[in-house]
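Students often ask why inverse folding is considered easier than folding. One informal answer: many sequences map to the same fold, so there is more than one right answer. In these notes we will look at a single instance of the problem. The structure comes first.
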């Protein structure tokens, strides 16, 4: 997952919302045509004459001089600013966009769009899109808005008269930035706040979450009011919506569509191939007052070279029945992740206190299993906003120990393997519906970037005889499991669009291809289905006599399926579960370096024992930091 350099040093809630959490790339979906033009969209905010070169109090602001330099650089390097109308026409098969099209957007409806930007647009003849928060336009006298570094008042925001003048010029189109959803609302019992569009608001007085129906109605009322205000004041309904903090969900998008806003923007990536679907267009967030050279550097940066460094964390180790101890555990985890600085954390969302690989309970509100604690939301949010790591929710595919003993027996996969994980029969419609509900409940309850499908997604050759036998030519059982995981992803994406996916895979199907039928797992098919396959590169678990040579063999087995190691994560073990002893940190580091020397790009380990500091924080920094210089911070 690629994190934008311009969004990596943001203080405060709004900055963290915009930067650390939301600059994510789109999940691989059915690809756009190879020759589809790519639309670059730039996201600007305030424009002032006195912005500091670096470290301004408002990191979203750009100086008037640097904005003009951006306009010059774009023109001088073949970029051609286009209007929203041109984008819509091209998407419908009309006049194609010019080479290297760029759409300029300005968020929040700040006065500088009229005072600073509009004169530049007229001078250059450039079109732009202005996304306004309608409750801020013609702000009531005496009302202020906390804009992060100071309170903004009426004089800081646009008026309807100014918007009409800019619209009438033909250069500026007005989009909705919602009416009053550009803020955080209570998101859990611990008091965190999160984006209003996507959060089920928590009522602390009553100890309950907003219902799905109430959440959707709140969105509908706000977006309808925003569209109505714009139409009443400007004579045109908005055709586009810019989601605050790039946070949105399927119901919000459906509501916007019904109101005529068929174009929507987030901040996920840098550009988007232009197709008939204009939902969720990527935008590059411009911040920290970049010069034209900074802009050029960013646009030329090769995102394909980004790597993953992941700590795999047991939430069971954070949980404690004593709230004070639980809070201390969380502080230890956050501090370690902050100091190690991985790119990702694979975070357990289910409770497995007996360590048998199946979920006894869950760490989020849900419809079917006990909730051990309402904890996943809190921990994921703290990691996201305090460390900058992207969080993948680690969830079972089949292994759920239902509280009803009768269902537990009737719905289980009959297995003769004593060492197998208890799993549910996913060919039963009621099982598919139940597990899908859990994934949807997870996504509705917390913000995260991706899903890691647990290692319980396997099938022995004698299990579920109603499925066709697995063969190399007809891998029906492997495909059946893949299809089910993608169904679960789709259920989750109703509330968390553009989720990335990773799936655990055992090493034996790679090292012993004949064992594929005993697992129903194939790397070539996983590569087509998921963003990443997290291969369990765990030689002690597999009883290897020479762990390093075993890893070499695993690399050789992966290479034919993923020659550049773009889609494969090698996940090492930090503990020898047979002896109960940790793997020495220096040996782990040597193994990781050995893998890198052979071209492996994405690395992880499990478990990351943050409580015991094993491997030590210093060893973890040297091994799995995503920083260029993983040295001890002062």
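Output (designed amino acids):
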């Amino acid at each position: 997952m690629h994190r934008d350099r311009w969004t990596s040093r943001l203080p405060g809630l709004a900055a963290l919302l915009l930067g650390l959490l939301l600059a994510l790339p789109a999940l691989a979906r059915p690809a756009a045509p190879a020759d589809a033009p790519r639309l670059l969209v730039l996201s600007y905010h305030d424009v002032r004459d006195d912005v500091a070169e670096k470290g301004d109090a408002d990191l979203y602001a750009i100086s008037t001089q640097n904005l003009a330099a951006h306009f010059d650089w774009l023109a001088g390097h073949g970029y051609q600013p286009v209007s929203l109308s041109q984008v819509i026409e091209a998407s419908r098969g009309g006049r194609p966009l010019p080479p290297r099209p760029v759409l300029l957007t300005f968020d929040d409806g700040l006065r500088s769009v009229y005072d600073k930007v509009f004169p530049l647009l007229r001078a250059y003849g450039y079109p732009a899109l202005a996304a306004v928060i309608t409750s801020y336009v013609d702000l009531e006298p005496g009302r202020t808005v906390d804009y992060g570094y100071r309170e903004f008042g009426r004089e800081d925001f646009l008026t309807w008269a100014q918007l009409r003048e800019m619209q009438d010029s033909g250069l500026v189109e007005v989009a909705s930035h919602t009416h009053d959803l550009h803020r955080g609302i209570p998101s859990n019992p611990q008091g965190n706040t999160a984006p209003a569009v996507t959060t089920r608001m928590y009522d602390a007085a009553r100890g309950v979450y907003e219902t799905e129906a109430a959440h959707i109605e709140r969105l509908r009322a706000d977006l309808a009011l925003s569209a109505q205000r714009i139409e009443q004041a400007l004579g045109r309904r908005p055709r586009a919506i810019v989601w605050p903090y790039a946070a949105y969900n399927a119901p919000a998008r459906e509501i916007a569509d019904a109101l005529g806003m068929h174009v929507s923007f987030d901040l996920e990536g840098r550009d988007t191939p232009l197709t008939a679907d204009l939902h969720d267009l990527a935008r590059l967030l411009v911040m920290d007052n970049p010069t034209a050279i900074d802009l050029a550097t960013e646009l030329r940066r090769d995102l394909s070279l980004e790597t993953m460094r992941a700590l795999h964390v047991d939430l069971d180790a954070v949980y404690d029945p004593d709230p004070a101890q639980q809070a201390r555990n969380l502080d230890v985890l956050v501090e370690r992740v902050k100091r190690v600085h991985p790119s990702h954390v694979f975070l357990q969302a289910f409770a497995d206190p007996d360590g048998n690989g199946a979920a006894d309970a869950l760490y989020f509100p849900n419809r079917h299993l006990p909730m051990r604690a309402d904890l996943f939301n809190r921990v994921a949010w703290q990691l996201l906003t305090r460390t900058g790591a992207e969080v993948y929710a680690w969830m079972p595919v089949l292994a759920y120990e239902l509280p009803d003993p009768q269902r537990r027996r009737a719905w289980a996969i009959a297995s003769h393997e004593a060492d197998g994980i208890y799993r549910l029969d996913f060919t039963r419609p009621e099982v598919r519906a139940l597990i899908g509900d859990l994934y949807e409940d997870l996504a509705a309850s917390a913000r995260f970037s991706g899903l890691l499908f647990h290692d319980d997604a396997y099938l022995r050759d004698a299990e579920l005889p109603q499925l066709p036998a697995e063969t190399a030519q007809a891998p029906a059982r492997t495909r059946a499991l893949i299809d089910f995981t993608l169904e679960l992803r789709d259920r989750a994406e109703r509330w968390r669009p553009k989720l990335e996916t990773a799936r655990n895979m055992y090493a034996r199907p790679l090292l012993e291809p004949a064992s594929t039928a005993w697992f129903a797992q194939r790397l070539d098919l996983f590569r087509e289905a998921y963003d990443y396959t997290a291969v369990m590169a765990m030689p002690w678990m597999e009883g290897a006599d020479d762990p390093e040579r075993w890893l070499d063999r695993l690399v050789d087995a992966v290479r034919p399926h993923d020659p550049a190691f773009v889609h494969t994560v090698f996940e090492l073990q930090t503990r020898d579960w047979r002896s109960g002893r940790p793997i020495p940190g220096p040996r782990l580091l040597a193994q990781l370096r050995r893998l890198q020397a052979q071209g492996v790009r994405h690395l992880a380990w499990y478990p990351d024992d943050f409580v015991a500091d094993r491997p030590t924080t210093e060893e973890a920094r040297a091994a799995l930091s995503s920083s260029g210089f993983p040295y001890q911070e002062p």
